[in-house]
Amino acid sequence: MLASHAGHLEAVRVLISGGAALDHRAKFGLTATMLAVVGGHKQVAIALARAGADLTVRGRGAPGFADKTAAELAREGGNPELAAQLEPDQTAT
Questions:
Q1: What CATH number is attached to the domain comprising 14?
Q2: Cα 28 vs. chain centroid, distance in angstroms?
Q3: Lowest CB count within 10 Å: 7, 31, 32, 80, which one?
Q4: To the nearest 5 percent, what fractions of the chain are helix, strand and coil?
C-alpha cells in the first residue's frame, strides 16, 4: 500500500509477483489501487487492476472517499482516461 501511494511501480510489481494481498483495506477502506489513484500514480493503479485487484471495492468513512470506487476517485480527480481503465469490465482485456 505504501509503494502504491508513493508511486513505486517496480516495487508494486515485485509485490504483485510475490502474491501480495491486492484488496487489503487501509484507513477509510482504501485499497492499494485507490491509494495509487489518490497519489496520482496511473501506471501503478493500472498494474494493480491488471493483476486482479477488486475494482468494485468502495471507500468508507470519510467525505471524499465514502462509497467511491477507484474509477470514481480517478474521475473526480480529473483523470477520466484512468477512470475508464479502472472500470471493472475494462481490465479483462
A1: 1.25.40.20
A2: 14
A3: 80
A4: 55, 0, 45
- The residue type found at 69 is T
Using CA atoms, how far apart are residues 15 and 87, in angstroms rounded to an integer? Answer: 23
Q: Could you list the residue range(s) of the whole structural domain that residue 30 is in?
A: 2-90
Q: Is the pTM of this model over 0.85?
A: yes
- The whole-angstrom separation of Cα 41 and Cα 8 is 9
pLDDT for res 64: 86
Contacts 24+ apart (CB under 8 A), 14-19: 16/47, 16/48, 16/51
Identify the band that residue 88 occupies on the pLDDT scale cut at 50, 70 and 90.
Answer: confident
In this prediction, residues 86-90 reach a mean pLDDT of 82
**Cα(52)–Cα(47) distance, rounded to whole angstroms?**
9
Q: Is the pLDDT of residue 67 over 60?
A: yes
Domain count, the chain: 1
